[in-house]
Amino acid sequence: MPDLAAVLERLDQEGLRLTEPRQQVVAAILGRTTPFTSAELWTAIQERAPSIGRATVFRTLDLLVRLGILQRIHADAEGGRCHAYLACDAGHHHHLICNGCGAVTDFTEDAALGELIHQVERHTAFRIEGHRLELVGRCPACQARGS
Amino acid sequence: MPDLAAVLERLDQEGLRLTEPRQQVVAAILGRTTPFTSAELWTAIQERAPSIGRATVFRTLDLLVRLGILQRIHADAEGGRCHAYLACDAGHHHHLICNGCGAVTDFTEDAALGELIHQVERHTAFRIEGHRLELVGRCPACQARGS
DNA sequence: GAGTTTTATGATACAATGTATCAAATCAGG
DNA sequence: CCTGATTTGATACATTGTATCATAAAACTC
Fold first, then answer.
1. Domains, in order of start, for chain A
2. How far is A87 from chain B (nearest CA, A)?
3. CA distances from B144 to A125, A127, B100, B137, B139 (A)
4. Which of A107, A120, A136 sits opposite B107 (nearest CB)?
């Protein structure tokens, strides 16, 4: 997870302005280590900075996703709502999300995944161009705690 | 992809009624071999059976997903809309979707995926309980056609 | 078949998650 | 300060569902 200064510098590099609302939204995101929904973020921001508009929150989320600072992940939540956001480092990797506490760990099993893709290409004659892989499970702490 | 008779029989087994609207919705789905959105299905149904309500379409989609006749897949579409539906056979498997024509192929690389999961478990000490895996690529026909 | 009960339907309203628009505010540079 | 380009917040709107509820239609009983 990057820190505030790094993100602000990144925005600066992109020719974007370090406005007060953006800094507020980024600050509200960077403390988070587990996936969050736009609604959660929105209510958190309303508490700390009620003047910030809803559109700005979504715009900033979108911005951070485009810059690779956030990832949008898909979950099978109820109610059709399936998007969550997750602060993560740049670069290709996958997420492993705890069913108990929501903790997120990254992994890159490139060798094993590459082998899998290779097998599928051989069996289907498709040329694989991309993949979406997400694992869910239970982190060591939640296993110990039995939750 | 199951056929109409099989689906109707399946509904019957579950104690569900083979009503006219349901049959219409199922018929509109079963011709499809590529992923479709609820909106596409809704407009198709309006043309062939305008009296069917929107709620019924969603209810039937939901029903078929629960019965395993449809899968709900997640795509990174624009506009926040990320759900698509896909008629598929029951049982655990994954989808391989063509970026060119939308054709869908199933695969089950259980051995390779099992090995991947095993590696991740060893490296992270998580207990893996589920996974979401989708590959996208280009089918042989689209490769040949250069699209 | 008529009556009853259960289930499904369609209309409507509502909720959640974004996006489009646009005037007003703000920022950066001279 | 002034100017011009970005951002912002408010508002309206779009999409994709879900909840409610009176009505309709199956299925079941006799």
1. 1-90 (1.10.10.10), 92-147 (3.30.1490.190)
2. 18
3. 11, 11, 11, 13, 9
4. A120
